[in-house]
Amino acid sequence: MASEDVKASESAVSTIVNLAEEAKLAREGVKAPGTALLNICKSLFAGGVAGGVSRTAVAPLERLKILLQVQNPHSIKYNGTIQGLKYIWRTEGLRGMFKGNGTNCARIVPNSAVKFFSYEEASKGILWFYRRQTGNDDAQLTPLLRLGAGACAGIIAMSATYPMDMVRGRLTVQTDKSPRQYRGIAHALSTVLKEEGPRALYKGWLPSVIGVIPYVGLNFAVYESLKDWLLKTKPFGLVEDNELGVATRLACGAAAGTFGQTVAYPLDVIRRRMQMVGWKDAASVVTGDGRGKTALEYTGMVDAFRKTVRHEGFGALYKGLVPNSVKVIPSIAIAFVTYEMVKDVLRVETRISD
């Protein structure tokens, strides 16, 4: 009996010591390993939900954008946003409006999760280095440093999920009249690997890397900088109790998305066209000489830029920009706000603004 009392006392002491240690770590700003891991999982989950919700909300516009980017200029089917959406609805119905969205979500959910989490971690690392370099422990991230953190996050997330993006592009472009059909994500991946080799899964990767730096970097930098400015200046009564409302955060996200995508859009067009290289069954895709429904021939990113501008003019680099702008404004805004709201619900202590 005495032995059991001793064991119980030792257990109680051990519990008290553990709780005291966790309290000490909390006071010092250090999370216990279990808590840190749980917060990482919650952060990844919040990023994934944000990506899935935001992309599904604008799926029809996403598909139209890709179709506009790669269509044959001598056989125009999609002539503008409204006409293009009506044409897809008339010829393919509701399923056509959301064609490729399953693949898109399968790509964007992990991409978004990795992107938001990578941004948080990159921000912490850059801020730590910046404070050491300046000797100021109270220094905060500047817009340029946020741009760097966002660029790092974009490159990591895009590289990790690029094969899914490549396959998504092909699934989106194919129609019911294509001679051969990709039956789904797995079938498309296996077919491309078998017929074109593993390198084909990364066609267009270079312009994607170059494009993701201003696009994702500016998204995060503009969003966070706008929020900081609003919180500091408190204009137009937009700030209440040092918090921004949902509508204000949506507006910040919309501004960030519009600015970032306008800068990076030509690279997105070139990336999409390079992804179609080697696929003879693409529907009305553009070739270097302007003919349609044959394999695209580009030797690289510079060659793709040169041939596109030479045969179709500079404006071809902005094909699909209007539906993309209409898509990006709500998409980026919804992604940022959804991410922060999900983290609030899950009670994750750190948000991207912190």
What does this structure look like?
The protein is mainly alpha-helical and 354 residues long. The protein has a single domain, classed as Alpha/alpha barrel (Mitochondrial carrier fold). The chain is 71% helix and 1% strand. It has eleven helices and two strands, in the order ααααααααββααα. It has helices at 2-27, 33-57, 59-70, 81-97, 101-134, 143-173, 185-196, 205-233, 246-275, 301-312, 321-345, and strands at 239-240, 243-244. The protein has a two-stranded antiparallel sheet. β1 and β2 form a beta hairpin. α5 (101-134) packs antiparallel against α6 (143-173), α8 (205-233) runs antiparallel to α9 (246-275) and α9 (246-275) crosses α11 (321-345). The longest helix is centred in the N-terminal third of the chain and has 34 residues, at 101-134. It is globular and about 60 Å long. The termini are far apart. Residues 22-30, 283-288 and 290-295 have low confidence and may be disordered. Solcar repeats lie at residues 38-125, 141-229, 244-345. It holds the Pfam family Mito_carr.
